[in-house]
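Input (structure):
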């Protein structure tokens, strides 16, 4: 049975291929927290390194739009990232449930809050992996939190990237053309806003802006295809 020193795990909030996210209570003061751990004990080094990068990237940042990281606990079998508690859902789950509709004004407020969140992140780095799984959203209050900052990108603002496999490190549905590694362009904060635009398109229409059978087709779409206008 999984145990994290100083914390009591209450319930599994959700899990991905790489991580499990738990609701937990701190024993000392009974405060609520979120704990993120690798999906399997003795996970590959890259998976645990991503959690450590998350902690280093955001532990000293204070923004209402960034999920705070309190501490990193290492045990013989796993690494646990202790985060602030936020009552929300991963945006990709809400998209799958078709929570948003074209006539739903919530997407406008979502766009405003996301712009504010990106402004906060861009004070110190480019996020580089804006996609629904890295956005926690409360559909009742409209509040949102960005996550995955440390595991997304180590790019400084206005960094120059030349990497043909860069697309493999991001969700290709939401990457910008310059993140594909196929264009000789600087990756800057505009890449994050491009990805936000792709997310907004999907929220309004209920379908991705681009579709493809494989990575090559998606890269081509981002480079050369104009998505259908969001009009029904």
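Output (sequence):
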């Amino acid at each position: 049975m999984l145990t994290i020193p100083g914390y009591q795990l209450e319930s599994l909030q959700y899990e991905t291929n790489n991580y499990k996210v738990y609701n937990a209570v701190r024993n000392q003061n009974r405060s609520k927290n979120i704990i993120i751990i690798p999906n399997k004990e003795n996970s590959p080094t890259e998976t645990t390194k991503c959690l450590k990068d998350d902690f280093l990237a955001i532990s000293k940042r204070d923004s209402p739009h960034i999920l705070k990281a309190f501490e990193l606990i290492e045990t013989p079998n796993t690494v646990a990232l202790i985060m602030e508690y936020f009552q929300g859902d991963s945006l990709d789950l809400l998209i799958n449930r078709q929570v948003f509709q074209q006539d739903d004004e919530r997407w406008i407020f979502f766009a405003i809050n996301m712009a504010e969140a990106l402004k906060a992140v861009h004070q110190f780095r480019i996020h580089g992996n804006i996609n629904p799984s890295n956005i926690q959203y409360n559909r009742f209050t409209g509040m949102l939190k960005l996550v995955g900052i440390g595991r997304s990108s180590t790019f400084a603002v206005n960094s120059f990237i030349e990497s043909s496999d860069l697309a493999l490190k991001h969700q290709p549905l939401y990457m910008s053309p310059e993140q594909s590694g196929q264009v000789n362009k600087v990756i800057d904060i505009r890449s994050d806003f491009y990805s936000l635009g792709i997310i907004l398109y999907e929220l309004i229409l209920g379908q991705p802006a681009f579709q493809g059978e494989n990575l090559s087709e998606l890269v081509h779409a981002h480079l050369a295809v104009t998505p259908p206008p969001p009009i029904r």
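Notes: Residues 153-168 have pLDDT under 50 and may be disordered. The helical segments are 45-58, 91-96, 106-121, 149-152, 189-205, 215-224.
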